[in-house]
Amino acid sequence: MGAEFVQLSLTPMLIGILAAIACALPGNFLILRRQALIGDAISHVVLPGIVVAFLITGTISTWPMIFGAAAASILAVIIIEAIRRFGKIEPGAAMGVTFTSMFAAGVLLLEQSDTSSVHIDVEHALYGNLESLIWLEAEGWHSLIDPATLATLPDELTRMAAVAVLIGIGTWIFWRPLKISTFDETFAGSIAIPVSAVGFGLVVSAAVAAVAAFDAVGSIIVIAMFICPPAAARLMTNRLESQIMWSILFATLSAILGYVFAGYGPQWIGLDNAVSAAGMIATVSGLILALACFLAPHRKRLGAAENLGQ
Amino acid sequence: MLDGILSAFFLQSGYNATLVTIGACLLGIAAGTSGTFLFLRKRALISDAVAHATLPGVAIAFIIMVFFGGDGRNLVGLLLGSAISSLIGLLAVGWITKYTRLAEDAAIGAVLSVFFGAGIVLLTVIQSMSSGRQAGLEGFLLGSTAGMLFQDAVTIAIGGVIAVLAVFTLRRPMTLAAFDPEYATSTGQNVYRTDLATMGLVMAVTVIGLKIVGLILIVAMLIIPAVTARFWSERAEHVVILAGLFGGAAGYIGSAISASAPDLPTGPIIVLVSFALFCVSLFFAPERGIFSALLRHRRFQLLVHRRQGLLAIAHGERIYDPLTLSTLRKAGFLRADGVATDSGAAQASKTLRDERRWKVARGIYQDDAVSNLYDGLTPIEAVLTRDQIAEIDRHIPVAKQVDGDR
C-alpha cells in the first residue's frame, strides 16, 4: 500500500467511486419512477453522439464529445416521445426502437470512419478503460499534498469529481420537488411543482452523469450503477433519505471491491493477468443486489409481507 | 456499389454471403413474429435482459470446451452455453419481480448489466488464456459474419426454420394470451405456460441471432418489426404476419447491402434497414401514421371553419378569420367582396336550422345517446328519423320560414 498503490490504483479507484455515486444518485429516483431503463437507453445513444462529435472536430477532446453525447441523449428523448405520442406505442417499445437504432448508427459510423489512428472503438465505449487512468507522476501518499504533482492528475478524475459534486448539489437543492413529484405526481402538480420540468431535469442529470462516466469507465458500469445500488438500497429501507445513503454506500463498495477483485483477484487464484475492472465492478454490484434480495429487511412488497404474517 | 447490392440481392455474390442472407432473412422472420407477442404483452424490453445475459454463457462454454481439449469456437457449444445463461437471466428477472418489491424494469436493468459485466470479466479471462487469443468471442457483441463457417450458416438457417415453425404452431394461444389473458385463462388455456413458450422462442431467436447481429442489437430485431407492423393493422393476426414480413425484409435487404462492401457490418445495417421501414410506417401508415393524422386534423379543421362561417353568415355577422373566408370562397358560398352568394345564403340558413334543431333535440333527448352525438358538425338528419325531426320542428316557430330554402 505504498507509492505503487497511489501511482497505479488510487486514481482509477477514485474515478470508479465517483462515477458510481454520480450514477447511483439519479438512479434512486429513476427506480422509484419505473424509469430504470432510461440509464440503459442513454448509455447506448451516447455512442453516435460521441462518434459524430469526433467526425466533426477530428480530435478526441472532452468538451465536443460531452456536447455530442448530450445532444444525442436529447435527440433520443425527443424521438421516444414522438413515437409514443404519434404512434401510441408503449414507452418500453418506443425506447427499444430508439436506442438500438441509434446505437446501430453509431457502430456503422465508427466502422465507416477512419478512427484507426485514435483510441475510439466499440469495446472501449462498452467497458471503458479504467485501468489506464493512472497517476504516473505520483511518488507516494505525500504527492497528495504536492501541488505540482496534483496538477498531473488524470483529467477524468477532476471531471468526474465535478460532475459528482454537481449532481449531489442538484439533488440537494431540488430535493423537495424531486421527492414529492416522484411519490405523488398529482399532489406535486396541485402545489405548483412543475412536474414535467422536474422529470426532464432528472433525465438530463442522468444523461450528464452517464456521459461523464461513460468517457471514463464505459457504459457497462453506467447501466449497472444506475440500477443495482439504488435497487439494493430500496430493499434496505422505506425512507428515501436513508435509501440515498445506502445507495451511495453500495456504489462505493462496488467500485472499491470490484476494482480490487479485478486487479488482485486473479493473483489470489493463481492467474497472472488482471481482468476487466468495469465488468468486475458491475458484477460486484450485482452480488450486493443479490444479497439484498435474500436478506434485506424491506425486500418484500408491503402486501406480500402482510400475507406472510397471516 | 449498386451492382454489389443487386448481385447480393439475387444471391449471386458468393456462397457464404448467400448463406448469411438467407439465414438473416429467416432470423428476421422468426424474430419479427415472436417479438410481436412480447410487444403485445407490453414486455418488449425483457428481450434486452435475455440478450445481454447470453454473454457469460458464451464465455463459460468456451472455457469448458477448451478445458476438455475441444475447439472452443464450436458454434453449437457456444450457443448452448448462451441459451443456458440467458435462461438463468430470465428466471432471475422473474424471481426478482415476483419475490421482491422491485419492479420489472429494475429487474431487467439489473440482470442485463450484471450478466453483461460478468461476461466481460470472463472475456478478459479468456484473452489471457493461451488458446483464447484467437477466440473472436467479441464478435458476439455486435455480430460478425465475415469468415463465417459453412456449418455455422447452416446452424443459423436450421434454427431460423425451427423458430418460424414454432411460431406458426403456437400462433393461436400466443395471440389470445397477448390480447386477453383473462379470457384465455377462462377458456382453459394455461397463460403462464404460453408466456414461457413465448420467452423460449425469444431466447431461441436471440441465441440464433448472436452470430449475425450480436447480443446488443438483437433486441432491435425483436422489437422494431413488431412496432412497425402495429402501424398498419389493428388485427393481431395481421400484425404478426406483417412483423414477420418486415423482419424478414430487413434481414434480407440488410445482409445484401452489407455483403456489397467490406466496411458495412451486417448487424447494424440490418437494424438500420429495419428502422427505415419503421420511419416510413410512422409517417405514411394509413390510420396511425403522422401524415394521415395531420390530414385528418386538417379536414376536421376545415369542416369546423365551414360550419362556423355559415353560421356567421346566417346571423349576418362579419367574418374576419382568413381560413374561414378562404374555405367559404372555395365552396362558392362567399363572393370576393365578402357578400354571401345565393347558395351560400341557402346553406347558411340550412345550417342555422340544423343548429336550432340540435338545440331542441338536446333538450328533448337529454340522457339519450343522441345528445352525445352532437359535435357541431354532424347534420341532424344523419342521426334522427324524419318523424323525430318533424316533432322537433314543432318546437321551433321560425323553422317554417327557412324551410323553403331547401
Which structural class matches the secondary elements of chain A?
mainly alpha
- Based on the structure given, which CATH architecture of chain A is correct? Orthogonal Bundle
Give the % helix of chain B. over 70%
Approximate strand percentage of chain B = under 5%
Q: How many domains would you count in the coordinates of chain A?
A: 1
The overall pLDDT average of chain A reads: 85
Order of helices and strands of chain B: HHHHHHHHHHHHHHHHHHH
Structural class of chain B: mainly alpha
Number of domains of chain B: 2
CATH architecture label name of the largest domain in chain B: Orthogonal Bundle
The number of helical elements of chain B comes to: 19
The CATH class label of the largest domain in chain B is Mainly Alpha
| Number of distinct beta strands of chain B | 0
How many extended strands of chain A? 0
Distance between the termini of chain B: 67 Å
Biggest β-sheet of chain B: count, sense, barrel? none
Q: DSSP helix count of chain A?
A: 14
* CATH-defined fold name of the largest domain in chain B: ABC transporter involved in vitamin B12 uptake, BtuC
* Average of per-residue pLDDT values of chain B: 85
C-alpha-based Rg of chain A, rounded = 20 Å
CATH fold name of chain A: ABC transporter involved in vitamin B12 uptake, BtuC
Write up what this structure looks like.
The complex is a heterodimer of chains A (310) and B (406). With 310 residues, chain A is mainly α. Chain A is built from 14 helices and no strands. In chain A, α1 crosses α12 and α2 crosses α10 (195-217). In chain B, α2 runs antiparallel to α12 and α12 crosses α13. Chain B is elongated and about 100 Å long. The model of chain B has no long low-confidence stretch (mean pLDDT 85). Chains A and B meet through α2, α3, α4, α5 and α11 of A and α6, α11 and α13 of B.
SSE topology:
The complex is a heterodimer of chains A (310) and B (406).
Chain A: H1 3-32, H2 37-57, H3 62-87, H4 91-112, H5 122-127, H6 147-150, H7 155-173, H8 175-183, H9 185-190, H10 195-217, H11 219-234, H12 240-268, H13 277-295, H14 302-309
Helix pairs in contact in A: 1-7, 1-10, 1-11, 1-12, 2-3, 2-4, 2-10, 2-11, 3-4, 3-10, 7-10, 10-11, 11-12, 11-13, 12-13
Chain B: H1 2-9, H2 15-40, H3 46-52, H4 54-67, H5 75-99, H6 104-128, H7 139-142, H8 150-179, H9 181-186, H10 191-209, H11 214-230, H12 236-259, H13 266-284, H14 290-314, H15 322-330, H16 342-364, H17 369-372, H18 386-393, H19 399-402
